[in-house]
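Q: My labmate handed me this sequence with no annotations at all. I'd like to see what the chain might look like in three dimensions before we decide whether it's worth expressing. Could you predict it?
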Amino acid sequence: MITLSVVTSGLAWWLGLYLLARDPRKPLLRRASVGLLAYAAVIALPLPPVALAVPAVAWTGAVVCRLPARYDRWWRWSAVPLLVAAWFAPVVVLVPLAASLALCLRTRRALLGAVTALFGLSCGALLLDVLPRALVVASAGVDLLLFGVLVAVADAFDEGEAIRGDMLRSLLASAGLAAVFGGQVALFLDDRLVPLLYGTVAAAIAVQVLANPLALLADRVTVPAVAAERAELREAVDSLPKRPPLEVPADFAKLVRRALSHYGDLGKLVASPLVDLPVIDARLAARGAPDNPLERAAELKSLLLEGISRLKPRDGEFGTSDEWRHYNALYFYYVVGIRPYSRRTKREDLDPVGRRALAWFVDQVPERTLHNWQNAAARLVAEDLSAQVAP
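A: Here is what I predict for the chain of 391 residues:
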């Protein structure tokens, strides 16, 4: 029983941290991570049955991220009341799971619906105590792990990244550290050391998965002058396993659009398959630059800037007519870094042209309109680059 619980808890803990480390700003990853981490805590700690409400509600929150936006609004309003109600009647957690299953069936998400149904059955069996706890814990854990993997794969697909190698590397490294440190506790295990075993395994996994954020924190304290550069190098190293092979997709503009979204981050540009464009080989050779991932990412950044610059009209530095919209949508948003709709981003260092562009975006360009302009402009930049993909 203890071996099964440690393995299940460790896997849920690892996958939850892995999803969180991918990008904590994304609601889908954040909610799936909370569900997995909460489930790991339910296994490892002597928590009451109401604790199972957290992974159940988080599960439904992750499910609605793949459904129309109105369902996400409903979930935001109902999540806290459901957790409060579960304190008095734990079986209420089955309600959001049943609703999620109904939504999956309604929107024809068969695989997601099947996993939700299995998890709901496991939660019901655990709450009603109708099956051996070890069997139910393992069953619910398999469902959650499968769901977490589906979430990771879906996010990687959205980002145009490869996922198998990166996830397998993280799993093997985490399992190795957990075995090394947890195994030492297991050699002398008795009832008093069970909490220490769970804690040791969790700490070993966390140190591996969160190595980069922890290193960044240490750098900011000890060597703040080079903390950003060191972080970029670490991110570039981690991005290499995520880079898919260069192919010619039906819509090449999607690759360009994703690369533009990472324009200011060389570490993430390393993961773009566009760094393997033949023109980058030629440009590196022409200037005698070393052929390494960061140089390729920097060359791709230069190519994107050249493509954006060719969209610029010739009548001044800034304009608001229709012929300026594609250039403005890419240059000021990605190159200058203006985020007109973000309350958390304040730019005090903008030049007069940048301030005019910011005021124009805020006053006259709705967010959806800007998004559409960026997609159209990305297609124009892609036309500049697409010829380089052909053999």
